[in-house]
Amino acid sequence: MILRALLLTTTSLMSLTAILLGSGCLFIVPAPVFEQVPDQAAVVGQRLAVDLSEFASDPEDRPLTYSVTEGPGAIDDDTFYVFTPAATDVGDHVVEVAATNGLKDDRSRFTVVVTAE
Hints:
The protein is mostly beta strands. It has strands at 5-9, 17-21, 26-29, 33-34, 40-43, 48-51, 56-57, 65-70, 74-76, 80-83, 91-100, 105-115. The strands form four sheets. A four-stranded mixed beta sheet has the order 5-12-11-8, with no helix packed on it. A three-stranded antiparallel beta sheet has the order 1-2-3, with no helix packed on it. Strands 6-10-9 form a three-stranded antiparallel beta sheet, with no helix packed on it.
């Protein structure tokens, strides 16, 4: 027998996802928790790397996947936010990163301040 799953989203303090299976079982899946990533300083031509796994966790120890949802930079080696600014990047940049457990996500915003030296 194939079980069909129905995902119900609820707004609560924990941003829970409820999964109702055809068997009548109800599972509550909590969202990951992303603590505030501190603002970062970067220098033109030098690689900035921030290990996002130091700031995000899943209450049920599910593996997390990270992404950059706003601003410059990328994810490298699965957990590192990386950015190598060019001379044209001098100034402040707001960055938003997300951590997802496959069902729910949480996000953190921080500023990268790029200087020439």
